[in-house]
Amino acid sequence: MQQDDTPKQSAQTTSGRFVDSALEERFVTGERQARVVHMRLFAAFLAAMLIGYALVNPLYFSREDELRFSLLLVPTLAILAAFAGATFWRGYAGKPMIDFASLLGIAFLIMAENALLFEEMHRAQVQLHASIAINGLIVMAFAAIAFAGQVRWFAAWLTCHAAVYFGVMVATEADLVPFIYATLAYLTSAAVMVLLNWSVGQAHRQSFLLSDALEAERAKTEELLFNVLPPAVAERLKAGQVVADSYPDVSVVFIDICGFSDLSRRISPGHLVDLLNGFFLLADKCAAQTGVEKVKTIGDAYLAISGGNNPSHNSADAAIRFGEAVIAGLPDLRASTGIDLHIRVGIHTGPVVGGVIGETRMAYDYWGETMNIASRIEGAARPDCIAVSESTWMRGRGDRHFELPQVLTLKGVGDMPVYRLAESPSAEIIRLVS
User: Fold this and answer.
1) How far is residue 59's CA from residue 192's CA, in Å, rounded to a whole number?
2) pLDDT tens digit string along 149-179?
3) Which of 220, 285, 338, 394 is packed most tightly, with the most Cβ within 10 A?
C-alpha cells in the first residue's frame, strides 16, 4: 500500500519553516490571503483612532503642536489608505514587503505623534512616561499577526521598529527612571508579540497541513468519482441532485466474444484475464476515439452508448464506427495474445432511461427495451461482423453496404428485421486503431 507523503512535507527547520520551499510559499500566500479582511479592518481602526486623537487634541494641545500633529496625521492616513487599497490587488498575497513597509512607516509616524503627546503630557505634569510604548503596541500587535508564520519578516520589522523607538526615547526622556520603565514596557510588549507571532504561525502551519491533507483526499475522491461516472453526472451528485435522465434517441452497442465459454475451458485463468484485459482496453480506446460512452462490462460482453451523456450528431453512425474500429483492432490483439479471438457486434437505436441508483459502488447505468433489443441483435451477428436494427440502419447506413434485411424472431422481442454490415472495416479505421 502506498504511504502518504504528507508527513515528509510537514518536516520543519529549526526556524519553523517548511523544508519544502513550494509548500512554504503556498502556505505563506494562503495565510496572507486569508488575513486580507483583518488588515483592512486594522487600517480602518487605526485611522479612526488617529482621527479621534486629532479631534481631541485642540482641547489640550498648543497651537504649534496641534499643527505638527496634523502634519504627521496626513501622511499616516495616506499610508493607511494606500495599504488598504493594496489588499485589493491580486498580487498582494505574494508581496510581504507591502506590509513590512506600510506598517513600519505607520509605526514611525505614530511614534512621532506619541512624542508630541508625551511633550504635552509632560508640560501638563501628567506622568505617563510609557505612553509611547503603550500606543505603539497597537501597531506592533497587528504586525505580529500580519507576519504570522513569517518569523524572519517580523524579526526584521521589529528590529527597525525598536531602533526608531529607542531613538525617540533618548530624544524625549530626560530622566533615567522614566526611560528605564518605558524600555521595560517596550521589551515586555515585544517579547509578548514575538511569542504571539510564533505561536499563531505554528498553529496556522498545523492547520494548513491538515487542510492540505484534507484537500488532497478530496481531490483523490473526486478523481475516483470522475473515473467511474461521466463528469456532468459527477457534478450533479456532488451538488446533491438525484440523477435520472431520459434519452429519446441513443444507439446501444453490445459486443460479445464468440465461444467464450469454450475458450475459458481451454486456456489458463491468467491467460484468460490477459485476453479480456486486452479486449476491453481495445474497446475503451475505440470508444474514446469515436466519442462513444462506455457503460460497463458484463462478463465477456462490452456495453456502450452513443448519444447518451456524450452528445452525438448521429448516434447510429458513431456506434457503427465504434464497432468497425473494434473489429479492425482484432488482428493485433490476436497476434499479441496468440488466441484466435472473434467478436459479434449488435446495435439498436431508440429511447432509454439513465441514472444513478444506490449509495455504494455507484455507476451511471441505462435501462429500457432498447438495451434488450441491442443484446438480442448482437446474437444474430456473424463473427467479426456488425448487425443492426432497422432504426440504426436508417440513420447510420450512409455509404456503407448492408446485406438485405432478414426478419428474425428475437427472444422477448418478436419479429424484427436485422441488417448485417457487408463490407470490412476501411483502411482508415484500421489506421485509426493501429
Assistant:
1) 35
2) 788 888 898 899 888 888 877 776 656 756 7
3) 285
